[in-house]
Amino acid sequence: MSNISITDNQLNEMLEKLSLEKIEDLFKIIPDSFKYDINSLSIKEALSEQEITNYFNVLGNKNLNSSNSLFFMGGGSYDHYIPKIVDTLSSRSEFYTAYTPYQAEVAQGTLQYLYEFQSMICELSGMEVSNASLYDGASSLAEACSMAMSITKNKKIFLSKSIHPSYVDVLKTYLDPVGIKINFFDDNEDGTTSCDAKIEDDVACIVVQSPNYYGLIEDLESFNNVKSNSLLIVISDPISSSVLKSPADCGCDIYVCEAQSLGNYMSYGGPNIGVLASRKKYIRQMPGRIIGRTTDVDGKTAYSMVLQTREQHIRRDKATSNICTNQGLLALRSTIYMALLGNSLYDIGKICFDNCQYAADKISNIKGFSIYKKNRSFIKEFIVKSSVSAKSIQKDGVSKNILIDLPVNDLNDNKILLSFTEKRTKEEIDTLVEFFKSYE
What we know:
There is one protein chain. This protein is of the alpha/beta class. 30% of the residues lie in helices and 14% in strands. The longest helix is centred in the last third of the chain and has 20 residues, at 344-363.
């Protein structure tokens, strides 16, 4: 937004209205010891727009990012290719708002794309109903657990240990203040989650992430045999879901995910977009907003917010959540991305899988490096164990314009988290392999 300065006449007019003589009189209440003498500040001469743009470009170019480096970072935020049409359409003035379409009669376009977003999420996950998005994947998980407790009237939760640590932290933030106990499953020797724990009738939900934080695919169907009266909540990357059996077909009751990889940039960690979908019988307990399709008085197709059980619209004690908004603009980008790719989402997932397996083949033959738990059931990322300090490898990589990740829950261990999206080429992977070979 442009700065429109005031004239001396306007300034004097305002001071006269306030019965003041000068601007400084506005700040008499502030002690002199807290004031700076503007003349004592070492402020350089003002720069032109071109000069200040060049200045910040020079500073920005000192940073490494996915555009000027070999980028193998993942762990929840992924460098997928975004077709230019996503930027073009989502930046149209008719769409370019993050605000809620309260007036249905003047927001049919926004309501329709949110309806299509819900429909595509249901098609991708196999679930029957979806809301119009939440803040991010972590808050979606917390809302899903709250939803499960509301449905089952139980207060215990069982989690896989291989869920993204940041998701667990957010969940604890939600549940610790109200005294909800979180229990954890043990791990199998191959790095996946053991479902041997006895699940009593007082458990609200079982939460499993697949692919999990280490990139490994979980046997979701095995949890149906032990869940008793609890609900199965599945966290899954949407790109990976395109090549896997759908969560619904695996017995999932509530599906959550982070949809950043569906047409949204990493943007230094946000904003992100959360997804929550479930079986239709739980629709009345869903948080957020649900867009529905109907016909108007003239018999034409119309869209409106049919369910929005938040505390601002109904009695607080009846609200399903205090989340007051959704990620409308990011949902638009995801809708355009999914509509554009269609069945080609499978091709994206397959390329990620092929890149991952190619890299794993190469890296596993390097002395001092091995695939975590020797488990190769991953789609687009996996853990590598090294005989050398992972921190030192990461630091050396930066000096060579190679960016790799460290698992946030194992920073003191020699583990490296590598992600391979469809943007990574064989040549780039070979360069990474040669870099690792230098530590043999």
